[in-house]
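User: Sequence in, structure out. Go.
Assistant: Echoing your sequence, followed by the structure tokens.
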Amino acid sequence: MRKWVLFYTALSFTLILSGQTATSTIQHLDDYFEQSRQQWNVPGMAVAVVKDGKVLLAKGYGERKLGSGLAVNDQTIFNIGSTSKAFTAMAMAILVDEGKVQWDDLVVDHLPQFQLSDPYVTRQMRVRDLFTHNLGLPNTDYFWAGMSISPDEILYRMRNVPMAYPIRGGYTYQNIMYLAAGKLIEKLSGLSWADFVQKRIFNPLQMANSYPTKALSQVQTNRSIPHHYAYGTGPIIPIPDTNADSIAPAGAIWSCIADMSRWVVSVIDSSKYEGGRLVKPATWMELFNPGAIVPANDFYPTAKLTKPKWITYAKGWFQEDYHGQGVDFHTGSLGGTIAQIGLIQSAGIGYYFLGNLDHAEVRHALMYRTFDALTNTPELRDWSSEFLILYGSAPERMQKALDKMNAERIADTHPRVPLSGYTGSYEHPVWGTIRIAVEAEQLSVVEPVLLTGPLDHWHFDTFHFRVEENPSTARNWMHSITFHFNNQGKVNSLTLGPLGVFVRAD
């Protein structure tokens, strides 16, 4: 039996090789990863490749911050976004093993204060429903991305959200239910979600450079800086970190590629680690039991090329078929930072990616290239080039969006009333208050804080949020405000982006 040899380079490059074939395959992937990073203009990234319980590669590429000269290495931390969800599911699985909860328990029996707008759904909601995005709720990300309210307030306000479809009768990605799962973990364990994940997952797996929240991650200076293409101008610029701590169980973990490779090794091997396992084999299998069918139009555009025959969602995992084998994977995305995990359990293959350019879908390309290389696929497709054509470059996408928006603008129109006629407080039963004022002779949002700033007249009684360099802000994805009038010609309501109608309260 050949001996495994461990090599370290200046970039903390880790290879565990068995023979010339493995050496050649990993070197090929290493080269392809760097070429693809440059092709997609990603300032910095880190990738891990696992096969049969061995970490074949865990390496950083590029820079933590564009132009800084500070290299990404295997200890550079990134936000891992929604790949955090699998940790929350594993945490609940640990409590299932301890007999403190069962997947089919009614949530109301453990969290009687957590209510939804439909009493029937509240009574029928089961623990497993918190993880599968098919409870019947619409997307409610504005609660954390557009408002500055506490986790408890977010959960309380869910009782005001109208149901979008029958319970377990559809699919809509729903971050807030993972927050509810975190609250249940706290109730059952007596520890905060962050402390539980640290104590029961990070510590056993020796993930010493992983942090449950952005706040806790501040002790680490070797950290990636998020980047985005500047809106309308195109250059890549560094942007501030997005803070997801208010929904931490859904997407707030920070980690490095060395630690995430340990997570991949464990999760692909039924949660084993040196000296034990996180959960029993049967409980681990339940994590991958499909809970919802994902409609093709709600899935990633990559499916146009990979052509899966089925797509499902389990507990913190998307699932699809690829070349006749099942794939469990998930992406993570916060403003300017991205992540992806991918497993082919039947082949013992694991992949993890961290990057610092907003929605650079090279992450998908490198996953499929890894799968192809480690399953000895005869023809290795250039997924990086194919996906770049599929998605288009970010500046091209932004320009198309701007062109479409400008084409819909009606020229030479004016507001119906003086700017003072639009000012006031407007209320929505779910989303709360938005307050409009005139500042420096310009209509402006002065509440909530994440939307504050000037509005530019677009046409008629529609005003756009002023375009900012950082497209990740709530102001940019809210897009516009349109005011409505009553029979007396006075403003009585407004429509805020996709959130619906707010009624004037003063």
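User: And one key feature?
Assistant: The CA atoms of residues 325 and 346 lie 7 Å apart.
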